[in-house]
Amino acid sequence: MICYLMDENVNPLYQIQLQMRDPDLVVWAVGDEGTPSKGTLDPEILIWCEDYGFILVTNNRTSMPVHLTEHINQGRHVPGIFILNPNMSIGETIEELILIAGTSDDDEYQDTIRFLPITQ
What we know:
With about 120 residues, the protein is of the alpha/beta class. The chain has four helices and five strands. It has a five-stranded parallel beta sheet, with helices on both faces. Helix 1 packs across helix 4 and helix 2 crosses helix 3. This is DUF5615 domain-containing protein.
């Protein structure tokens, strides 16, 4: 089962809309109970995602590739990272994330960064 962790800089509407559209989908956000607190550094968030099996959804295009490379070079793994596309509407992004969750294998995106949209 695919689970999403929304980065703290992602608009909260994504989490709200995903949960409204698909109540069975696990969508947490940084700062929610049980997740890394707001202000947690990206390398620590990647460790949390690895430990708990969550794909990170972020708009961090600049430093996240560097953090993922360092994470993997330490012999670690991550279920995946999805980077939001600023040219997609919230609705288009919600549809994309629901489609991905419903049609993907749990390890399909392991150790990769994917820029949305990944379905065409």
